[in-house]
Amino acid sequence: MRYGVALPNYGELADAETLAHLARRAEVLGIDSIWVSDHLLAPTGVRSIYPYDRRPDAKPGDMRVIEHFYEPLTTLAYLAGHTSRIRLGVSAYIVPYRNPVLTAKQVATLDALSGGRLVLAVGVGWLREEFDALGVPFGGRGRRTDEYLAICRALWTEDVASYEGTITRLPPVRSLPKPRQKPHPPIWVAGNSAAARMRAVRIGQGWHAIDLSPEELTPLVQDLRRSLRAAGRRPEELTVSLRKGILPLARAPQPPHALYGPPDAIRADVAAYVAAGCDYLVLTLRQARSAAAFERTLEQVVETLG
């Protein structure tokens, strides 16, 4: 099982010095990748409910938590300059928020300048009020995502790129540099829905699930593999990844397979995820209230997972 860790590119710990220090520390510790999240605005008066909220009484959250938020690709470019080996990921990059030509150019530039270290987990988005503020239609965002990614792939791989879609088009153009990774950085499709899994089957190099237990993950991976075979693809062509919270050495009782507790319990849970078909974990370090606490948790994760 390979794993990466999510860094705090938003909230109280988000500042240049802390992010650079934690990125360097993660690299020294031998962690495979560092990840950041994506939002552009913090709407007020939100009625949307986060789709991965596991609470039985889930309700709209206070969006002030994303008010202080560093843009993900810019943040990763900064962190690329402070590191040399560790891979750089976005979980999840909301594709329909941005013009696809801008996305393609920024992604290609970052991958080229970082030496081919980028992994792009892509999503369709969930926060309707953020779409409204950006002037992007919330309805049809799945189709928009597909067409925007088609434009990106054309710009990344073709000498003269063009595209004709139902939502957008690209006249014949040239664009350099191309990404360092060929044919382009891995695209992991984020989301637990059937639509996300089918998008991964069609265009992805990975499926990126969010906060599922091994029991929940197992049938979805089986369905994914059936769909891959039906599409003429081999299951090993697609990385199955999962974003999950972790808190080593936690004493309070936690739900099963929540990646909380002493090392032996966490290792047993990781083994359960491997058995469920998970190849890669993106770990969110819970309850770290200071840079020092975040660094200690990083070290505990490495001690636990090796």
Describe the fold and architecture:
With 306 residues, this protein is an alpha/beta fold. Helix content is 38%, strand content 19%. An eight-stranded parallel beta barrel has the order 1-2-3-4-7-8-9-11, surrounded by five helices. A two-stranded antiparallel sheet has the order 5-6. The radius of gyration is 19 Å and the shape is globular. The N and C termini lie close together (10 Å).
Note the topology.
Blueprint: E1 2-6, H1 16-28, E2 33-36, H2 72-80, E3 87-94, H3 100-113, E4 118-123, H4 128-134, H5 141-157, E5 161-164, E6 169-173, E7 187-190, H6 194-203, E8 206-210, H7 214-230, E9 239-248, E10 260-261, H8 263-276, E11 280-285, H9 291-305
Parallel strand pairs: 1-2, 1-11, 2-3, 3-4, 4-7, 7-8, 8-9, 9-10, 9-11
Antiparallel strand pairs: 5-6
What kind of sheet is the major sheet?
A: 8 strands, parallel, barrel
Unreliable stretches, pLDDT < 50, 5 or more residues? none
Number of strands: 11
Shape: globular
- Average predicted confidence as pLDDT: 94
Structural class computed from helices and strand pairing: alpha/beta
Question: What's a concise summary of this model?
Answer:
The chain has 306 residues and is of the alpha/beta class. Helices cover 38% and strands 19% of the residues.
List keywords for this structure.
eight-stranded parallel β-barrel; 306 residues; two-stranded antiparallel sheet; globular; 11 strands; alpha/beta; 9 helices; single chain
